[in-house]
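Researcher: We plan to redesign the surface later, but first we want a full-length starting point. Tokens attached.
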């Protein structure tokens, strides 16, 4: 599923900024918050796709 792969990529891409934000880097914290909003939106798309797959007749 393309959306799930995108979700994984987004989560992996912010790992360095999360570490920097924990160290007190405010700019990294801002980048993490923005990325988390993108992750939220992609996760919602994954949920929709799963529901579509589940709703399809077997």
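Model: Full-length starting sequence:
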């Amino acid at each position: 599923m393309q959306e799930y792969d995108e979700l994984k990529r987004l989560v992996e891409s912010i790992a360095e900024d999360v570490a920097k934000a924990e160290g007190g880097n405010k700019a990294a914290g801002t980048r993490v918050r923005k990325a988390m909003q993108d992750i939220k939106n992609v996760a919602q798309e994954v949920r929709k796709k799963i529901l579509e797959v589940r709703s399809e007749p077997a």
